[in-house]
Amino acid sequence: MTRNSITELLIFLRSEAGAGLDLSAPKRVELLDWLTAQRDALSEKRSAAKPKAASGKAATPRAAASTDRARSRTGSPPAGACALLHCDGASRGNPGPASAGFVIYLDGEEIYGKGEPLGRMTNNQAEYNALLLGLEAVKQLGFRKIEVALDSELIVRQIEGRYKVKNQALKPLFEKARLALYGFESWRIRHVPRKDNAAADALANEALDAL
After folding, report:
1. Domains with residue ranges and CATH for the chain
2. 99-128 confidence digits (pLDDT tens)
3. Taking Cα atoms as reference points, which of 31, 10, 22, 17 lies closest to residue 175?
4. Structure confidence by residue, pLDDT tens digits, 42-57
5. How confident is the model at residue 65 (pLDDT cuts 50, 70, 90)?
6. What SS3 state is found at 125?
7. 139: phi then psi, degrees, rounded to nearest 5
8. What's the confidence (pLDDT) of residue 50?
9. DSSP label at 2?
10. 1 vs 142: CA distance, rounded Å
């Protein structure tokens, strides 16, 4: 398969028509994982074979990039822009009253944030719900690329595929999160210390305090 044909297949699987295929969520995620790995491998080969640009090539003017960033504050994000999503879930009682908080950044500037009550659930369920709410908000803002940061190492490692999801209550949330991530052109997820996730944590706690 060529890189273009794989990309077209990925786009189809993410579309409404592709959603109608008779595939279980785990099988769909497995197929998306495999196709993405094949596409990335072909991209690496293509990049390695591509000749280096001449040293005298003119650089892109900085002013144009600044204009694009300015427009993104009032309309759609600039082409190729990558949103940074910080999210956090909280539960008092574990299980108990729970909430979610997330903050979206572009170029280091906060562009949107929200805290939302979730009802009664465990802390890990709240973490997954915070991720899902944040991903949906990023999508609604028009971003096609995303980087996600959470202070829950468990959720991050599960999304990465390094930890198995053994808890039956988390499996549907895990599958929804993976499918939501594959709705973006590119994505990555990383674990951050709690102190670096303070804004999302504060929104989650504010929503919890309001219950």
Report:
1. 3-48 (no CATH), 77-209 (3.30.420.10)
2. 999 999 999 999 999 999 999 999 999 999
3. 31
4. 656 655 654 444 334 3
5. very low
6. helix
7. -60, -45
8. 46
9. -
10. 30
